[in-house]
Amino acid sequence: MIEREIADFDLEQIARSGQCFRFRELGEKRYSVVAGGKYIEVCQEGRLVRFDCSEETFESVWRGYFDLDADYGRYKRAVAKRDQYLQRAVAAGCGLRILRQELWETIVCFIISQQNNIGRITKCVENLCSLFGEICYNRSGQVYNAFPTVERLAACTLEEFAPIRLGYRARYILSAARQVVSGEVDLEAVRHMDYAHARTELMRLSGVGRKVAECICLFALHHIDAFPIDTHIRQVLDAHYPKGFPLKRYRGFAGVMQQYAFYYELVTN
């Protein structure tokens, strides 16, 4: 068990923020997470966060995954005092972090996310992993499923996806997987691209438009200048930023501001 005191960190807010769909609530302020094929249980009391893993695994996997080396206090202090909406949003989501997720998993999850809600996305991802993910065992010997590899999904048929009830998204996922396996889209190259080039390359994938590409850039590639605009954020912009969001003020971390706003809309509407 690893214990750390962490400022600007709220496990529950992160789990409910809609950026990852493999958090499972085990109890009050206690969650399991599967990421990159690894399983962990995390709990929090105040600023004290406990990670049920070895020191080596914490340093090599989870410190980076939860973005623990970033100073989110600095991001929050940058918010303009006159911006009452964003001040409220930051107060509501003061413990959010931008997770560093695995690229292929994030692509699939955000293809699924289109015209969908968090509960249903989570169920679809869970079923996808149960059907096609590698069987793994946690430290207690309990079974969990890793996220399906791109090769496994590329080998599927549309009929095999039917039990998951993905609708039109199944065709997108199958096509995107085959694009990656064939080398038409090189995810390893994408990992090393800057934000603009990565977004453009991701949009070559079936089912990945501008908004989904922005989400992938933000939540997998950690281009935290990405600013996805979905229905929630469009309403925020129309209501509070009719002249446009002040992206220049938050250059280099506008995506963090987007996440505060997105979470605020989730919990207040």
UniProtKB/TrEMBL annotation:
One of its GO terms (biological process) is nucleotide-excision repair. InterPro entries: DNA_glycosylase, HhH-GPD_domain, HhH_base_excis_C, OGG_N, Oxidative_DNA_repair_enzyme. It is an enzyme of class 4 (lyase). SUPFAM superfamilies: DNA-glycosylase, TATA-box binding protein-like. Its EC number is 4.2.99.18. Residues 112-266 form the HhH-GPD domain. The keyword Oxidoreductase does not apply. Keywords: DNA damage, DNA repair, Glycosidase, Hydrolase, Lyase, Multifunctional enzyme. It catalyses: 2'-deoxyribonucleotide-(2'-deoxyribose 5'-phosphate)-2'-deoxyribonucleotide-DNA = a 3'-end 2'-deoxyribonucleotide-(2,3-dehydro-2,3-deoxyribose 5'-phosphate)-DNA + a 5'-end 5'-phospho-2'-deoxyribonucleoside-DNA + H(+). It comes from the Bacteria. One of its GO terms (molecular function) is class I DNA-(apurinic or apyrimidinic site) endonuclease activity. PANTHER family: 8-OXOGUANINE DNA GLYCOSYLASE, N-GLYCOSYLASE_DNA LYASE. Belongs to the type-1 OGG1 family. This is DNA-(apurinic or apyrimidinic site) lyase. It comes from Agathobaculum faecis.
